[in-house]
Amino acid sequence: MGFMDAITLIGLLGLSLAASLLITVPLTGALVRLRANYNPRGLRLDAEGNIEPHTGPVVTSFFGMLRRVKRIEGWAGLYKGLMPTLSFSLVLTIFAVAVLNANTPSTPGRADPPAAGLFGTLAFGMLSMLMSLPAAIITYRSITTPYKLPYFRPFYSLRILLTPTERKRPWILYMTPGLLAAESLHVAYTALLLSGVRALLLPRSGSTDYSLSPVRFGLYMTIEILSTAILCPLEVITTKLAIQRNHAAPEYNSVEQEVEDDALDGAEYTEYSGAEEDVIGLRHEKDPYLGLVDCAKRIIDEEGWRTLYRAWWLTMLSGIASGLASVAPNMS
What we know:
mainly alpha, Mitochondrial carrier fold, two-stranded antiparallel ribbon, 13 helices, Mitochondrial_Carrier, transport, MCP_dom_sf
């Protein structure tokens, strides 16, 4: 790909990305909040052993969460996470096109990985994941924070979203308990298993002897749909782990254990809307998840196994769209 071709492709990707974000940011925000919302089924004990009833919101549907965000935080709340999403998406798009020589996107705002076999696809997915992991953490936290984050004051926002430990040692974000493992499993499943099944059952994109077998395509789509049972829990776990902040000592919150300037003094959305409650409830930072397995076990024990399948139908639709996109270029 020539230099001018890369610049043109980056420009087209940027325009399509900006247009798509106007629609996808509110939907992504509702999805992240729904999956991050902590909704234990029963009573729990506080630090002193006293019974502490759960008082957070009970929201179990995607569209119910969307309406709740609009009611409590307004339009500004619906677009929380816009700036980090836009910034990091542009950086990843430029990297994918200019450095990794990604193909022309088959869907708007999406750069397809280079055709380099299963392990090449896995390497591309792992590299993209490692680059995007801090971006995902910052984006998810900006969506779930009750504080108002100005669009053009990134350092102020990072002071609210990250602990002093994370700001001094940003690489610690990769050490968030269980997060890297959950993301790696997700990438490995999609890059190895699903890509392998796609290569086995579907003709390669651009093949001159293209012939689509309805039986093979139906089998592939069935596997994509059934994969929801594995991918959705990983996405829920990833969301809950990404918003879990890293402190100098897990048993203390950062205000008590780290430095004085970690005290959050930003304005909350509820101060402007007059609402008496936050959009979602979050797990107390003094009782963090200790890893991937611990997170899955605690979700099942405290909130029920159905929590692992919040908005499962969106994961399923994503798989269906991926399957259709893989054959669409060759159906003309």
